[in-house]
Amino acid sequence: MDYFRSTFYDKYTPMTEAQIRAALTPSPRAKSAAPLSDALAGQTLKIVLDGEPALEYAIAAETLTMREGGGAPIEAPYSALCQDGIMLLTHMIPGTLRGYCVVLDMKTDLVTAFEVWFCGFEPDKREVWRHFSNGYIEREGKAAPTGRHTLTNRVEGAGTHWKNDDGTEMLYFFPSVVWSSFVELSDPRGGITITAPSDYLKINDRVYIYSRVEQEFSGAFTLEVIDLFTVRHIGVRLGFDKDDRLDYSVYRGEGEVTGRAANLEPLTDYGTEIPFEEVHRAHFGVAGRGGRPSYRPRFMHKDYTKAELDEIIRTNLSVFRGESIMSSFNTMEASGYMTGKTFTLSYDDGETWEYRVIDGHHLKWRISGEAAWHEELYEGYEAAKDIILFSHICTGSDPLRCIAHAVDFSNSLTTLVDAWIGNGRKPWEAAHKAYFGVLECEGAPAPPAVTRHGFTTELVGRAFSWTYGDNMQSIHVYSSPQSYSWTIMLPNNTGGWMWSSPCLYVKLRDDAYLMSWTEDGCNGNQGTFVFNPRIMHDAGFFFGVGDTDGADDVHLTPMGAFARPLNGFDIMKYFAPGQK
Asked: Interior CA angle at 343 toward 339 and 344, to 5°?
């Protein structure tokens, strides 16, 4: 099994301690595209940290001498940036895999120090771990300050756009207090949303510390000081790129606030206490030093071979039996709208499907030109007036196909999401493709010659909460034209773990949007739903391979949720004109 899955399309190889140590020898100085700050040069600082050994620094122009807890002095190169009296100092410790990123408020003498080290999960060491401590600069003859930088939810829900002096252009989204997502617009492939466990600390009402680690992907660590008055930041990045080259750099950036998604915890919850112990225990989190909430799908799902997959399909193909976590209380009522109907769905650049619907759960289908009819179980939902989303398996197909049609009987337009197991990267991960076409059915309008459903960007930037049932809620942020993120909620309706997926968006009508996604690098499943913004409800289907409780299956299950609008972000202007 791969130790690091792809960032959907990039593969990160495991790295050994010896490889990392070689890259850190001699001890590197963080590079910078712009001049570094020399504001600390000539100073001697003693940083007192709560519950941690003190850090003592004697700082020269390009190097510093450091003592941890009164230990032996070490000399190392450093880099520093300054933003309105806030210093960001970063250095590695020679001969080790660790270093420090220290944020100092020179106006208040308050400090937050991030100890960082390459650790990862055996046998891969490329992931950077961190432990942060709050404290202050000890000044001779001056009383120690009583305040501290604190955990906060004051930036939860915010979205920002950044252009950095190293050429990086980014979108950030903060729908959680322990996670974040980002889209690297400067990546020439563009449009992919990545999620990462994150820290948020408040320096004051305008300035915040934000950190993240690309935990399941490159393993790189990023820390930034963000000023929301001026929308500027300074930051440091430590890790290895996809070519296993060390990326240790500092940078400056200017940006814009793109909007806000509402956060849902009580108004008197200020985010200063996060249920870390509960978060650590879940999803392979690690308590103790460096511990943080984690979501590691590569440890949660079996890496099936094609032969294993074929056997599961043969012995345990579960079609509309049981429930997924998203199909409990709020699934829409199944519809018998199509009972007794015979119709044809013809798709441009695709196949023509003929249907005879027997009742509310059984139909016959064939592809035009076939002599024999196939009988399948199906379910259908009237997601908006006269729009039926229905789905079925194509039994016996190889690769196994799952068909979902969104048919508008009011105007004879239809969209097909054709999904199958095996995406070219993993034999058990699902893939999908959308086709647009027309309906031919007695009693329906004549199909249009040119008009079709089509891809849309109208949902891009929107955010919604979704309630599937009492035990399953999430927040969706539609963060690019090709991808989105979801946030699983912590107790108290606080944003928690996140993941993201490639997806597609289709506009059926003003009251109906189709969304389909594939959970690449995660559980490999695929989902399709139609969302009706008038009733704030969706209806759809979840398709893929399961390995829960030892009962391996390939399943097609219904899903549905109630939605609440959470506002969103003005971001389409940052994508290429006409991008779908």
From this structure: 145
